[in-house]
Amino acid sequence: MIKKHRAFLKWAGGKYALSDVINKTLPSADRLIEPFVGAGSIFLNSDFVHYLLNDINQDLINLYKIVQRKPVKFIADVKKLFSPENNNAESYYQFRKDFNQTTDKYQRSLLFLYMNRHGYNGLCRYNKSGGYNVPFGKYKKPYFPQAELEFFSEKSQKATFVCEGYRQTFARAKKNDVIYCDPPYVPLSKTASFTSYAGNGFGLDEQADLANAAEEVLKEKGVSVLLSNHDTIWTRKIYEHATTIKSIKVARTISQKGSTRKKVAELLALYQ
C-alpha cells in the first residue's frame, strides 16, 4: 500500500480523495503539467520525472516557491503563528488586515498559511479589489502541517512553479508531457458559485475555452489532457469531443457539518 500524501493547505475542491482514480487515468509521460494546481494533491501523489505547476493565484505560487527554496526557515517562522493566543477572531482579523496591506511576499506567505488553517473551512477567496476576505473559522486547535510542508518541499525539487493564465501554460506543453486540469467547477446551482478563488471569475466561456484548448493541444502537439469537473448536462456537452468520459461519485466537503455533505457526480474527461 503506497502512502498517500496530504497537501499542507486545506482547499475547497481538493483532489486528495480522487488522486488514485486520477493517477490511474493519466497517460504515462515524463512531465505532468497542471494549469490549476490548487493545493497540489495530484502533484503530491503522482510519480513523474518533472512537473510544471501553475495557478492564477499569485499568493499561492509565491508560497510554493518559498516552501521549495527555504523550507526550514519558513516552517520555523510560520509555526510561531500557530499559538493559542493567535487562535481568536481579534488576532485573525488583525492578521488578515496585515496581509491585505503588505506587498512583502514572505510576510504574505506566512499569513496565507495561517489564514488557510484558521479561516472558515479552508476557503480561499478575495473581494473585487483583491482583498482576502475569508472569515474566522473558530477551530479549537488548528493543525500545523509540518510533515506535509516538509514533504511538499522535498517533492517540489522536481517542479517549476509559474503564475499565468491557463492558455499560457498550455502553450508550454511539448512531446512527452501530459496535462491535468482541475479548473474551478461549473456551479451545480445558482447559489453555488463561490468558487472564484483568485477574484477572477472562471465563467462558462472559460470552461468552453478550456475544452477547446485540450482539443487543440492534442491535435497540434499530441499531448494528452485529463479534465475534471462536475457531471452536468453542460459539461458533457463541452467535453463531447473527449476520447473517454467517466463519471464518479465524490463526497463534497464544503459544508462545515459533515452530516450535510452529500455525494455529487464528477466527470473525468480524457483527450488522448
Q: Which CATH architecture of the largest domain is right?
A: 3-Layer(aba) Sandwich
Instruction: Extract low-pLDDT stretches.
Output: 193-199
Report the portion of residues in β strands: 15-25%
| Main structural class | alpha/beta
Q: State the CATH topology of the largest domain.
A: Rossmann fold
Number of DSSP E strands: 7
Q: Quick one: CATH class of the largest domain?
A: Alpha Beta
Q: In DSSP terms, counting alpha (H) and pi (I) runs of 4 or more, how many helices?
A: 10
Radius of gyration: 18 Å
- How far apart the termini lie comes to 29 Å
- Report the biggest beta sheet as strand number plus sense, adding barrel if it closes: 7 strands, mixed
Outline type: globular
What tags apply to this protein structure?
272 residues; alpha/beta; Rossmann fold; Adenine-specific Methyltransferase, domain 2; seven-stranded mixed sheet; globular
Strand and helix layout:
Layout: H1 19-25, E1 31-34, H2 41-44, E2 50-54, H3 58-69, H4 71-79, H5 89-101, H6 105-118, H7 146-155, E3 159-162, H8 166-171, E4 177-181, H9 204-221, E5 224-230, H10 233-238, E6 244-251, E7 263-271
Parallel strand pairs: 1-2, 1-4, 2-3, 4-5
Antiparallel strand pairs: 5-7, 6-7
Tell me about this structure.
The chain is α/β, with parallel strands linked by helices. The protein folds into two domains: 19-58 and 158-271, Rossmann fold; 66-147, Adenine-specific Methyltransferase, domain 2, CATH 1.10.1020.10. 36% of the residues lie in helices and 15% in strands. It is built from ten helices and seven strands. The chain has helices at residues 19-25, 41-44, 58-69, 71-79, 89-101, 105-118, 146-155, 166-171, 204-221, 233-238, and strands at 31-34, 50-54, 159-162, 177-181, 224-230, 244-251, 263-271. It has a seven-stranded mixed β-sheet, with helices on both faces. Strand 4, helix 9 (204-221) and strand 5 form a beta-alpha-beta unit. Helix 3 (58-69) crosses helix 4 and helix 5 (89-101) runs antiparallel to helix 6. The radius of gyration is 18 Å and the shape is globular. The model is unreliable at 193-199 (pLDDT under 50).
